[in-house]
Specification:
Blueprint: H1 3-13, E1 25-29, E2 32-35, E3 40-43, H2 46-49, H3 58-70, H4 83-94, E4 98-102, H5 105-123, E5 132-136, H6 145-149, H7 154-157, E6 167-170, H8 175-181, E7 186-191, H9 207-217, E8 221-225, E9 249-252, E10 264-268, H10 270-273, H11 289-304, H12 307-324, E11 330-336, E12 339-344, H13 352-360, E13 363-364, E14 366-368, E15 372-375, H14 383-397
Bound molecules: pyridoxal-5'-phosphate.
Length: 398
């Protein structure tokens, strides 16, 4: 079968909820992927940062195959010999006290929402069904009904109501707006350390420190959604480390499995997580031994192979290279670690055409919010590979 045949099948039999670039991939290794016609591309999206460890990392693959041959699913009705080890390793790595394992990122967000509401009714005397959670404009936290209920993106919401109440939206990067929005009924503030889907929007320096101080003083739980920023992407294990703070709840997913399998988690202090009692929350697949074995190895290679430091170094080098590109259509270049973006001016006529011409040059990336191109290669990218990427980007934007 040819690429066009695979595309036809997707169009004919699949839901049309994505508009992918027409490249049909069949194989991947490190930062590279190959299409069905044998053409090679550099992956500068990394499945929205789920393959931070690079495609088909051999150690993660081995752990997955070994565990798949031994035991895959027990349900949480019984215990397994991988879950406790993953808990301990995650807590040691992130200075957390408690872990709640789930599968998708959206499930981690939903789980955090349930947990902080319950905490609020227990600890803050909020009248039943009145708990409020503060979120930011232009957020991206997932696709469930509750999560799109507090999205400000009309495409994500349109036609999907009625929506879940209990959310209040403030501008991102504005600590004074948070202070002003808190009431007696506020249980939590949910925020991305850097807004990824919004186009790699980095808040002003000190924002997270101010937010941490306000949440502590007003007895509001700080939930950081690090599903995209976490696990090395920004050059630290968690993006919160850039400001030396610790969230009360931290959400991770995506790269927690190195792209092999959906694994997510809510990381918590003991005080917050202890409100959940047996039977009050769960997931058939959450915490299964296959997921845990994969996640344990995905975390181990991130550390052992120095990928976090490499993301900091190569990210700075990549950013510097992007900043050197002289083109009047570039409105802004920004990034932290290997989470990078070039925003084009409206006169450039949209970012998608540049993604198409980059594809023709062998570099895969994704436009976001019409005018922004995001670059987020796997964290093991080398200096030579960054040089190659910069050559293609310079040529495509020239
Ligand atoms: C991807 C993402 C999610 C949702 O994760 P899914 O696994 O797609 O449900 C939530 N928050 C952020 C910041 C994300 O980038």
């Amino acid at each position: 079968m040819k690429a066009a045949d695979f595309i036809d099948l997707e169009e004919q039999f699949g839901a049309h909820n994505y508009k992918p670039l027409d490249v049909v991939l069949t194989r991947g290794e490190r930062v590279w992927v190959w299409d069905v016609e044998g053409r090679r591309y550099m992956d500068c999206l990394s499945a929205y940062s789920a393959v931070n460890q690079g495609h088909c990392h051999p150690k993660i693959r081995q752990a997955m195959m070994d565990q798949a041959a031994r035991l895959t699913l027990t349900s949480r009705a019984f215990r397994n010999d991988q879950l406790g080890l993953l808990y301990r390793e995650l807590c040691q790595l992130t200075h957390s006290h408690k872990v709640l394992p789930m599968n998708s990122g959206a499930e981690a967000v939903e789980s955090a929402i349930k947990t902080v509401r319950k905490w609020g009714y227990r600890h803050k005397d909020i009248p039943e069904n009145q708990a409020e959670i503060i979120v930011c404009a232009n957020n991206f936290h997932g696709r469930t009904i509750t999560i799109v209920s507090f999205s400000t993106d009309p495409t994500a919401r349109g036609g999907f109501g009625p929506f879940t109440p209990g959310f209040k939206i403030i501008p991102f990067g504005d600590a004074a707006a948070l202070e002003a929005a808190i009431t007696d009924r506020t249980v939590a503030f949910l925020v991305e350390p850097i807004q990824g889907e919004a186009g790699v929007i980095i808040p002003p320096d000190g924002y997270l420190r101010q937010v941490r101080e306000i949440c502590t003083r007003r007895n509001v739980i700080l939930i950081l959604d690090e599903i995209q920023t976490g696990l090395g992407r920004t050059g630290k294990i968690l993006a919160e480390e850039h400001e030396g703070i610790e969230a009360d709840l931290t959400l991770i997913g995506k790269a927690l499995s190195g792209g092999f399998y959906p694994v997510s988690a809510v990381l918590s202090t003991s005080e917050v997580m202890e409100v959940l009692k047996p039977g009050e929350h769960g997931s058939t697949f959450g915490g299964n031994p296959l997921a845990c074995a994969v996640a344990r190895t995905a975390l181990r290679v991130l550390i052992e192979e120095g990928m976090v430091d490499n993301a900091a170094r190569m990210g700075a080098y990549f950013l510097e290279g992007l900043r050197r590109i002289r083109n009047p259509m570039i409105k802004s270049v920004r990034g932290r670690g290997l989470m990078l973006a070039v925003e084009l001016s409206p006169e450039a006529g949209g970012a998608r055409q540049y993604c198409l011409s980059l594809k023709d040059r062998g570099l895969l990336c994704k436009d976001t919010h019409t005018h922004t191109i995001r670059f987020a290669p796997p964290l093991l990218i080398t200096r030579e590979e960054v040089d190659w990427a910069l050559e293609q980007i310079t040529a495509a934007l020239g």
